[in-house]
């Protein structure tokens, strides 16, 4: 192996590592944005009204 091929391999390895780090950074940012969007959607939901006592789902018949 000559010096130029070793330098080219090292440079390619460094470029690949940098590309992987940038890809991970972009992925993390995208996941953060999705998390924020999901939280906004959940916060926008109206509260669930409580069922009045004695209606369907209010009492469980344990003898059935």
TrEMBL record:
Q: Which Pfam families match?
A: YjfB_motility (PF14070)
Xref: InterPro entries: YjfB_motility
Q: What is this protein called?
A: Motility protein
Query: Can you name the source organism?
Result: Parazoarcus communis
Classification from the root reads: Bacteria, Pseudomonadati, Pseudomonadota, Betaproteobacteria, Rhodocyclales
């Amino acid at each position: 192996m000559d010096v130029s091929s070793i330098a080219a391999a090292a440079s390619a390895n460094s470029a690949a590592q940098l590309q992987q780090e940038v890809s991970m950074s972009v992925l993390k940012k995208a996941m953060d944005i999705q998390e924020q969007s999901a939280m906004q959607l959940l916060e926008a939901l109206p509260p669930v009204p409580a069922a009045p006592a004695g209606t369907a789902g209010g009492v469980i018949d344990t003898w059935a």
